[in-house]
Write a structure and sequence with these properties.
Layout lengths: L15 H16 E2 L4 E2 L4 H31 L21 E4 L9 E4 L4 H24 L48 E6 L26 H10 L3 H6 L4 E8 L2 H6 E7 L3 E3 L15 E8 L5 E8 L13 E8 L2 H4 L1
Length: 336
């Protein structure tokens, strides 16, 4: 049979080794062309020009950036924030924080069984860790702290010296490590403190010192605060000391209030005003109050704690001037 001209033999396909050698030859030719003396497609003069251009361009860019950063840093004070008072995010209206609170689980529930140590040990450890940290900070800065702050003529915090917050009162209270901060007895202690706001100088509420009635409260902001104070229980109002930033803890609604049997504050029901304002002093330690709760067991109590001054604003949604947490002490006897 005669072979069809259309069936002419096709050229043989190059082997893998041949293709590899060709590719390497082309790559080497690209890296250096001996005929044109080019390196990666450019002559020596071309490389010199482009490298010089980018060197100058990025040097000018880096210099401009460095000048901008220096000018910006010069406007900042290492101790004083740029935005203060109503221009700051805090609007000169601090909130409150409480411990123990674990950022990891983002839960505001304090739930434990006083009969089972494992359920409350993490709360005890967290409180003790905070106390030890603040004690160490205070000891390190002891020389720069004012040990004789009494308020009034006795003076208080100054721009250069913060008042010493003596935490030795804890040893005479149920809120210490020896007593497991009350958790082993079913009466837990919760640490309360005012969040730091630079140059916030509180104006403590002096109870019953300015006349306020429902008729003139609209014209006097202080009257509104005093009337709000007077709506609180008599026990809370009488336990807040003069020249103190008062603090109170109550149930958020009537059912929660019924679950709370007693709240005891250590060392007092508030924060001494002479610890403020906070001016980023060396060794400054925020004063705290230990609130010990006795609640009905087996029930969840939603608790709101507020800080009281003449000018502070309370907002439950934004937690301004307050903090919120839930507390539940397990009733082991009923669960068995």
């Amino acid at each position: 049979m005669e072979r069809n001209n259309n069936d002419a033999e096709k050229p043989a396909k190059p082997s893998c080794c041949t293709r590899f050698r060709t590719s390497m030859r082309n790559f080497g030719h690209y890296m250096y062309n001996s005929e044109t003396k080019e390196v990666m497609g450019r002559t020596g003069s071309s490389w010199a020009k482009i490298l010089t251009f980018y060197l100058v361009f990025y040097s000018v860019f880096a210099g401009f950036w460095a000048i901008c950063m220096v000018c910006f840093i010069k406007t900042l004070d290492p101790k004083v924030p740029t935005m203060l008072k109503m221009y700051s995010m805090m609007k000169d209206n601090p909130g409150m924080s409480f411990e123990p609170f674990f950022n990891g689980n983002q839960s505001t529930l304090i739930y434990f069984d006083p009969e089972i140590k494992a359920t409350y040990q993490e709360f005890v450890d967290e409180l003790q860790k905070i106390v030890e940290t603040w004690e160490n900070q205070t000891n390190d800065a002891m020389g720069s702290l004012n040990r004789n702050c009494t308020g009034g003529d006795g003076g208080g915090s100054t721009p250069d010296r913060a008042c010493l917050f003596d935490m030795s009162f804890l040893k005479d209270t149920p809120c210490n490590l020896k007593n497991n901060f009350g958790y082993s007895n079913g009466t837990p202690c919760v640490m309360l403190r005012v969040n730091r706001v630079f140059d916030w100088d509180p104006n403590p509420v002096t109870l019953y010192k300015f006349p306020c009635t429902a008729s003139n409260s609209a014209d006097n902001p202080n009257c509104t605060k005093t009337l709000e104070f007077r709506n609180m229980s008599q026990s809370i109002r009488t336990d807040i000391y003069e020249n103190y930033i008062g603090v109170s803890c109550q149930g958020e609604n009537d059912a929660d209030a019924d679950n709370i049997i007693r709240v005891t504050f250590y060392p007092r029901q508030g924060f001494p005003a002479f610890f403020f304002p906070y001016l980023n002093q060396d060794g400054y330690t925020s004063p705290f109050v230990m609130a010990q709760f006795e609640v009905e067991r087996g029930r969840v109590s939603m608790i709101q704690c507020k800080v009281w001054t003449r000018d502070i604003v309370h907002d439950l949604n934004d937690r301004q001037g307050s903090c919120h947490f839930e507390l539940m002490v397990s009733n082991t006897s009923n669960s068995k």
